User: Fold this.
Amino acid sequence: MSATATASPAAVELDTNVRDKLLKVGSANVANVLLARGFRNVMMLGLAPLAQDQPQLVGPAYTLRFIPAREDLDSMANYGRTDNKHRRAIEECPPGAVLVIDAFGSLQASSMGDMMAARLRHRGVSGVVTDGGYRDSAAIEATGLPCYQVRNAPPATPIALHPVALDEPVGCAGVAVYPGDVLVGDRDGVVVIPRHLVEEVADEALDAVEYEDFAALHIANGRSIFGLFPATPESRAEYDEWVAAGRPELEKK
Assistant:
C-alpha cells in the first residue's frame, strides 16, 4: 500500500502488540522518531486534552470534514436526518478507531456533544480529536472517552458547521491526516503517524522511552547529561549491559 493511498481504518486494523507499545510512549517520543525520518509536521499544535487524567489515546484515524454552514442547508431539521454525515460519523466510526474532526479551526459551533460522545464510547471508539471545540464538556468528560480540542464551543453545530466528507484525507490543527494513520495522544498533545510507518515507529519510540528510564536513574544519581542524553554509542552500550543485567537499581552517590 502506498504512503498516499486512502483506506478505511475498518480495513487497517491496529495490531494489538503495536497498540500496547504506543500506549506506553509519549507523543513527544513519537514525534522525535518521526523527525529522524524527516517528518516535521506531525504534532497537532494548539490542542489540549479535555481532561488531564483521561486515558492515553491510540488508534487509526477515521475522518469527518466540516465546511462553513449555509442557511438553506443547515438547520436543526436537516441535522436530524439519518443521512447527515455528522451523525453518520458517530455510527460508522469503527471500534478502536479515533474520530478526527476537521472543523477548519472553527470555534463558532460545536464539533460534538455529550450524547455523541456517549454513543462513541459505547461503540468502542478510542477517542475524538478536533481542531474546533465541544459542548457539554463536563458530560463528555464523564463518559471517559479521550477527547482533544482547542477550547469549548457551546453553540449548536448547524449554526456554523456543515459536514461534507467521511473517511477522506483531512487537515486537522495544521496536520495532514489520512484515513488509517495512527494517532497517539497524551497530556502534551496529539501526534499523527503515517500508517505505513506505525510498526517501526512504535518499536523505536518504546526503545527511546526505556532508554530514558535508564538515563533518568543516572541523572537522579547526580550524573551529567553530557554523554548520556541524548544517547551516545557509549551510553547505548552501557544501557544494553544494564538491560542484560536485569535493569538493576543504581548505587546511590
